[in-house]
What does this fold into?
Amino acid sequence: MAKERSTERFDVVVIGAGPGGYATALYGAAAGLDIALVEKDKVGGTCLHRGCIPAKELLETASVYRAVSGAKEFGVLADQPAVDFGVTQARKQKVVDQLYRGLSGLLGARKVTVHEGTGALRPDNVVRVTGGPSGDLELSGDHVVLASGSEPRTIPGFEVDGRLVVTSDELLEIDELPSSAVVVGGGAIGCEFASMLCDLGTTVSVFEALPKILPGCDRDVARVVERSFAKRGIEVKTGVAVKGHTPNGSGRGTTVQYGDGETIDVDLVVVSVGRRPLAGDLGLDATAVVLDEGGHVEVDDRCRTAEPGVYAIGDLIATPQLAHVGFAEGMLVVKDILGEDPLPLDYGKVPWAIYCHPEVAFAGHSEESAKEAGLDVVVSKHRYQSNGRALILGEPDGLVKVIAEKDADGRAGRLLGVHMVGPWVTEQLGQGYLAVNWEATVDEVASLVQPHPTLSELFGETVLSLTGRGLHG
Ligand code: FAD
It folds into this structure.
């Protein structure tokens, strides 16, 4: 039987070592707090082991393959490129392992006490750890942070078997590329997977129940992605629900039923219909912590739960499911614990980055959401086909769209949103994000100088045109 040890005391006990939990631990330890971090699997969480990092690494392989396949256009002859997926997977794992070692080392260097095992909250801010190598433990914290994250949602009729039906967890580990696939769900992760598989040679269809893919994105941006997908042969069906599937006799491939009695035969079904919060193991029944209808822990604007001294952050709460939102919430919690009176996060203005081809990035209002919020807006759009660097790269698809508030004199004032689709926009969003969050005006941003020739000068050009005068457009 596992040996029970006496209760260890900490300033903060964190349950879950994904981006939310490890950010709390690292930032708190940097501020001098004594922190215990409880993790039942591996530090790094979904983001490092089953999410952002492995997904983006495989998307990079897709990008390299696409570049080599198109090299002839530049006069570079690299005939017959092929993918050795074993090498691809090994490289992905090498990147993940290196970051994992780095994170583990950093936690050690900051003197964070990491306990392996499943953490559950008991009354009086005690966390019980079970199933770990050091036997069952009790950790007591002046504060406790719940950061247990989320797991993929599934849908009836599509039992995940890791062979014919996968979620993101299994897809990132496949050892062979399917020749055909249906991606169920056209959100950010679904579009990234569709793009990646298509670039690597899989015939892909995306089925989305809503009227458009990439819900939440500006309509013009989603349209560019849809057009690019269509050009590359990705079939996108919106307003379509899948009903179930029937594996074929050979055990390789299945027939998916969808829409109005229609069917499609594919090797693989990728279910990408969102993620659900993981509160089940946390033992919350014995506490005052409240869950909402969707299973998220309810918190106030400083991530405080109804249980005194207990916070919840990351995918466990109903805020954008993004690693960097978890980082920001972890830091907010530490500041609150330190009595620094932090400002709540403005979730409507956090940056979003989607790494399909073409990439998508945005911060702040889309044109539709600004109008729905009753704001009077002026909008400007500029396309990469008129940008020198984009043509040099051979990546003319895409646009920058800036949404600004219309001032009383009819001129464009404060920037409300910046939405981009095109080459490397995930790396270009920075100045748009800053402008929106700084509440900068069009005139202020337009007076800044952009380097030439860059992709990012299209943002400057788009803002400049909102002053009523432009250079190139
Ligand atoms: P998680 O990362 O889920 O970590 C929670 C941790 O808690 C896990 O390690 C788990 O093992 C542990 N745990 C759970 N319960 C217990 C318990 N009772 N005791 C001990 N430990 C426990 N976000 C982005 O910002 N950018 C991206 O490009 C991006 N791409 C993504 C791609 C994919 C395929 C997926 C699936 C997600 C992606 N995300 C991306 C989302 C991002 O991964 C999550 O938002 C982020 O990981 C959430 O962080 P978290 O700390 O809340 O939870």
